[in-house]
Write a structure and sequence with these properties.
This protein has three helices and seven strands, in the order H-H-E-E-E-E-E-E-E-H. It has 152 residues and is of the alpha+beta class.
């Protein structure tokens, strides 16, 4: 059963607390499978949803998903940054959990990340450009970090 879950935002006390808390390692395969299903269903329900991290749906586990194209999604469980480009770029970034204007954010041009996929296989993924930006954004969520629009 796939479920579309509402995305927590910093507009609520629960959302602020969840989004500011580092997530813990995901270890239970049954839980991981359920969370991945919900993350994918929810990401696909969002307009132009490029990525989603478990804390955004109220699950404090180190899992995120990212959309490469209409038919392929990355699923990263317990991801770790292995290597990143020396250079990067500034661009405007938005987050489904943060209302308000976009935030100009610096990200590495490419990153290499290791973790496990939804079947528990160890994987190493290297992504660049917009996908690398999404990976860094979602991995920040796992560390309790999110973009903060400046006070207007
Ligand atoms: Zn976000």
């Amino acid at each position: 059963m796939m479920a579309i879950v509402s995305v927590l935002t910093t507009d609520s006390e629960l959302g602020r607390r969840m989004l500011a808390s580092p997530a813990v390692a995901a270890t239970n395969p049954v839980t991981i499978a359920a969370v991945v299903r919900d993350l994918l269903a929810t990401m696909h329900s969002l307009p132009a949803g490029a990525g989603l991290a478990a804390p955004q749906i109220g699950v404090p586990l180190r899992i995120f998903v990212a959309r490469r194209d209409p038919v392929y999604d990355y699923v990263l469980i317990n991801p770790e940054l292995v290597e990143s480009s020396a250079g990067g770029l500034w661009a405007h970034e938005t987050c489904f959990s943060v209302s308000g204007s976009s935030v100009r954010t610096y990200r590495h041009w490419w990153v290499r990340v290791r973790g496990t996929d939804r079947r528990g296989r160890r994987i190493v993924v290297r992504v660049h450009g917009d996908l690398a930006r999404t990976f860094q954004h979602e991995m920040d969520h796992l560390d309790g970090i999110y973009i903060k629009p400046e006070q207007e």
